[in-house]
Amino acid sequence: MATQDHSQDHADLKLHAAQRALKLVEPGMTVGLGSGSTATLWIKLLGEQVRDHGLKIRAIASSEDSEKLGRSYGIPIINFEECRKLDLTVDGADEVAPGLALIKGGGGKLLREKIVASASKRFVVVADGSKQVEKLGKFPLPVEVIQMAVPLVSDELRELGFTPKIRVHADGSRYITDEGNLILDCSGLLMEDPAKLAAKIDSLVGVVEHGLFLNMANLALIACEKQIIERTV
Ligand code: 5RP
User: Fold this and answer.
1) By CB count within 10 A, which of 37, 46, 58, 138 is most buried?
2) Averaged confidence pLDDT in the chain
3) Pick the catalytic residue: 26, 67, 95, 113?
């Protein structure tokens, strides 16, 4: 019962953060749709504005799920052929550390999320207070890897001090990303120097992307019990 109440609190807090982020949207914008439960709340709020109040925006989605949800509200979904730069992307995060250093990818959408965020003039994180940390790494870092390279990349990640584990669904089957790759969830390392680690992981052949989002977010809207904290870099 206590656990249920706690998660409900988080749902309320996530909604508050999403509501605040909605205020950043202006007519005519091209926006990036994040993925995960907090981003989903934001997409629903945004979708209601489009469907019920005639808000004119267009969007690029960071996952098939978010695209489907956006379309269900009538949000026009475009791609990077049609527009190279987004005005605003709103997305969740698994951890938010000082300097707005993030771990993302708990939902497995890190690759497209990073593409969308990197093409955004403004990248805003929405989260509840439980996502704030002093150092990244308690949440296992997701690393997206080409399937045949998984044993090789796993060894390299162990060398770096991680304990990598292939992500699986509840039924034991492997989680496959939207791009057809596997995810290694890498635990066991509190990061003293995330930028150095990111560079090392980037250099591993077979790694497609990782969930360290550094120097990308401009603003984090962190919903706590009594207030929404606006954190900038
Ligand atoms: C998905 C993500 C999510 O943004 C992250 O996992 C946070 O999710 P939630 O809002 O459900 O807590 O990176 O790949």
Assistant:
1) 46
2) 95
3) 113
Is 113 a catalytic site residue?
yes
Instruction: Quickly tell me which residue has 């914008």 as its tokens.
Output: 29
E strands of the chain, at which residues? 30-33, 58-61, 88-91, 95-97, 101-103, 123-128, 141-145, 163-166, 182-187, 207-210, 212-213, 219-223, 228-232
Q: Assign 8 a pLDDT band (cuts: 50, 70, 90).
A: low
For a mutational test of ligand 1's pocket, the pick from 6, 16, 37, i.e. the residue with the most ligand atoms closer than 8 A to its C-beta, is 37
Q: Is the pLDDT of residue 185 over 80?
A: yes
pTM: 0.94
Question: What domains lie within the chain, and their CATH numbers?
Answer: 2-134+214-232 (3.40.50.1360), 141-207 (3.30.70.260)
pLDDT at site 9:
63
